[in-house]
Design goal:
7-stranded parallel β-sheet, 13 strands, 41% helix, single chain
Length: 434
């Protein structure tokens, strides 16, 4: 066994990045390493049962002692709930009214927890520090320890001249709108970026790249995206970057099909519907999807999310607030998703075609990439006609060639074992500094 290390993970509070780090941390832990999570405080009590050390941070002043406990990721659930009307706008119109406030909220959290992170590093004294987030935390980068960045977003976040601007959802083969989007992004974010860059320098960190809120690591950068959908033919990356075709955790519970999905009649497909913990908080959208999908011959497993008590499922459906997604996706024929990076890459990992209904952030980029490469269908989340969704289901289920191609891709991705590859790279960084 390699020399035991202390590995400190700092994931974004959302489920996707945290679950990604849980999967990698689980492998490292099995190898005998000590794994510490400096996650956001609402994850308290959820990581220790997995064998990890919890040394958590508050991203805002803590709630009063008599306040009810928050759900994991509650900070972002509340934020998304309050800004959900923005998701009906074109991406360029979201830049000033959704993207910039979201970046500011992330920045505020990073600035607030900076003293806490310095204390955690002093207490835990890690051998290697791993961040899966979209904003920089200077304490992590100035600790004098090997620093690893994980990008568990669409890799357009790693900028380049010959690829669409991130968060735009624009096509790769038509650059006619790229410049206008980039100019509006600059207008909406320049002041916010400049203030954060100045603060970062004041904390002893390197200057930020222009209009980016996170540095690349000088040691090791990992990003999670399947090779078949990557952009490296247009935007090569240097030797510090390593792709993980997928990073699928092995910590989900086993799953036995309940009666409704298990008893589907001949000719009926089994379909998984998940808009993520944040997208499923839009109760009106979930009710509409339930209504449209009820009038099909198929069976559905539905991830109901935090507002699970606010809407009912149709007779051809079964669901719950939380589901072991990585145990369910292998069982289904098709995935209907918001296009979050975890769900998108997990669908590739298990070889399942997708219908993508993007809501915010890089979900538009994932939706566009899936559609333009023929791995599924992108639909306008709030403007699709009922027959658009039903027709997309019929086309994808009826396309045996596409389904066979996806199955072959999934087998290749699983053979590459991205979680083990990530653990190998982090272990090497902790042992050798590279």
């Amino acid at each position: 066994m390699a020399q035991p290390l202390t590995v400190l993970f700092m994931p974004e509070s959302a489920f996707g990045p945290t679950n990604n780090c849980i999967g990698i941390g689980n492998v490292l832990q099995r190898r005998g390493h000590r794994v510490v999570f400096a996650a956001e405080a609402s994850w308290r009590g959820r990581l220790e049962p997995l064998g990890f050390v919890e040394d958590l941070v508050d991203l805002a002043p803590p709630l009063p002692a008599d306040a009810p406990a928050q759900d994991a990721g509650q900070f972002w659930k509340d934020f998304i709930r309050d800004t959900a009307p923005e998701f009906r706008k074109p991406t360029i119109e979201q830049l000033g009214t959704f993207m910039q406030p979201t970046w500011q909220a992330l920045i505020d959290g990073a600035m607030y927890c900076e003293p806490q992170l310095r204390e955690i590093i002093g207490r835990q004294w890690p051998d290697v520090i791993v961040e899966d987030n979209v904003v920089a935390f200077p304490a992590l980068q100035t600790a004098g320890k090997p620093f690893v960045r994980i990008v568990s977003c669409n890799p357009l976040e790693v900028r380049g001249a010959d690829i669409p601007p991130p968060y735009s959802g624009l096509p790769s083969d038509d650059g006619s709108d790229w410049a206008a989007f980039a100019a509006e992004y600059d207008r909406a974010h320049r002041e916010t970026w400049a203030a954060y860059d100045e603060w970062m320098r004041g904390q002893g960190a390197r200057p930020l790249p222009d209009l980016e809120f996170m540095h690349a690591s000088e040691t090791l950068n990992l990003y999670v995206y399947p090779e078949v959908a990557d952009y490296t033919d247009r935007r090569p990356v240097d030797a510090t970057w390593r792709r993980l075709d997928s990073s699928v955790r092995a910590t989900d519970a086993a799953f036995e099909l309940p009666e409704v999905p298990a008893s589907r009649p001949a000719g009926s497909a089994l379909i998984y519907l998940s808009l993520g913990s944040l997208g499923s908080a839009d109760v009106d959208l979930m009710r509409r999807l339930v209504g449209v999908l009820a009038d099909t011959p198929h069976r559905y497993i539905v991830s109901k999310g935090p507002q699970h008590a606010e809407f009912d499922l149709a007779p051809n459906m079964w669901g719950a607030e939380f589901l072991p997604q990585t145990s369910i996706v292998p069982l289904v024929d098709l995935v209907i998703t918001h296009g979050g990076n975890n769900t998108t890459t997990e669908a590739f990992h298990f070889g399942k075609p997708m219908i993508v209904l993007p809501l915010f952030w890089d979900q538009y980029d994932n939706a566009q990439r899936v559609d333009e490469l023929g791995f599924g269908v992108r639909l306008p989340t709030y403007a699709f006609a009922d027959d658009d969704l039903r027709g997309a289901i019929d086309r994808l289920l009826g396309d045996a060639d596409r389904r066979g191609r996806m199955a072959r891709i999934g087998a290749e991705i699983r053979a590459r074992d991205g979680v083990a590859k990530a653990a190998d790279a982090i272990e090497s960084a902790g042992l050798t500094g590279r």
